[in-house]
């Protein structure tokens, strides 16, 4: 059995210097990774927004093709089973912020197109409301 003061004794735990070095390395890695993560999160929200807009516009076209007019609201697409539910706008986290664009002829209905109600610009520099 070795004694604690002998050179063969094993140290229990880490020194303060070792802990500080490890924490500095972890902080450096987080500093590098965080901006990339946030950028990828933003791009994934944009991809979901594009897909949601495509699905709703496709449902509007099918509704018009079947009934010869556009729906009075997005909820009407759900009631008529063209959509399961009005999707949540990933930029505003709400399904009530969609902006309905009416057709040129008001007798054809109320929702010809749909746009995001989000303010701000995409990573490409275009406004979300222009998509």
Provide a compact summary of the structure.
The protein is mostly helical and 131 residues long. Helix content is 44%, strand content 5%. It has helices spanning 16-67, 74-79, and strands spanning 99-101, 113-115.
Structural overview:
This protein is mainly alpha-helical. It has a domain at 45-130. It is 44% helix and 5% strand. It has two helices and two strands. The chain has helices spanning 16-67, 74-79, and strands at residues 99-101, 113-115. It has a two-stranded antiparallel ribbon with strand order 1-2. It is rod-shaped, with a radius of gyration of 28 Å.
Primary descriptors:
mainly alpha, 2 strands, 2 helices
Strand content: under 5%
Strand-and-helix sequence, N→C? HHEE
Q: Based on DSSP secondary structure assignment, what is the total number of beta strands? A: 2
Main pleated sheet: 2 strands, antiparallel
Helix content: 40-55%
* Rounded average pLDDT: 91
What is the number of helices? 2
Low-confidence segments, given as residue ranges, are none
What order do the strands of the largest sheet run in, or round the barrel if closed? 1-2
Query: How much is the radius of gyration in Å?
Result: 28 Å
Shape: rod-shaped
Which structural class is indicated by helix and strand composition? mainly alpha
User: What is the rounded distance between the termini?
Assistant: 75 Å
SSE blueprint and pairings:
Blueprint: H1 16-67, H2 74-79, E1 99-101, E2 113-115
